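ugh ok fine here u go
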Amino acid sequence: MSQSEQSGGGHAPLIDHLIELRTRLLRTVVVILVTFLALYAFSNDIYRFVADPLMALLPSGSQMIATEVASPFLAPFKLTLVVAVFVAIPYVLYQAWAFIAPGLYDNEKALALPLLASSIALFYAGAAFAYYAVFPLLFSFFTSTGPAEIAIMTDISQYLNFVLKIFLAFGIAFQIPIATFLLIFSGATTVESLSRKRPYVLLGCFVIGMLLTPPDVISQTLLAGPMYLLYEVGLLFGRLVRRRQHEPEEAGKADEP
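structure:
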């Protein structure tokens, strides 16, 4: 076999992987685009749904405004695109899973698939918690603490940027049980070590809440509290996993003469 043939044979797997990656990326883009086109007819309704938590608390006669010429079009357009990505997340992660799954061992596949499904569910749960629990409290505080002489007329683009940050922050924060579980399962740390670091974790939750949310104490606290509780959930699952891992070892030792 010539050197060129050896070189070509060595690069063939890499080229195959790149072609597969391109195919899966194209499929992902197509699904997001199709979802966006299907939702675009309802873009104003989607924006109205997202704006409801604030609109319900505005004083009588108040309304949201658009301070830029293109905002009435761009704000719903941007939100619909984000919602399309949000809806397509399971398919996007499935494509990522299908790409990396052939390189995993059977035990890794058995663990990765439930973690992937849990991650998607937790992200959706974080966004739902933000919309149904955080927004009413947050906007109730904002609309009731200003001077009575100030008319509240929020710009639609600024409002959208605000709520998208909150959605993303809570979606990411709700991944803490997965991260904690993986740290314990991989052996990078232990349940005992993480348990001793609870005060630092609590402080870290408030620091992360300060970085990920707008500069107000309420949204930071509403993010930091669930983050810490989810950390405890991760520790609980970590204890269960370590216990199951030790049971076969103890059974093996008991069978030894």
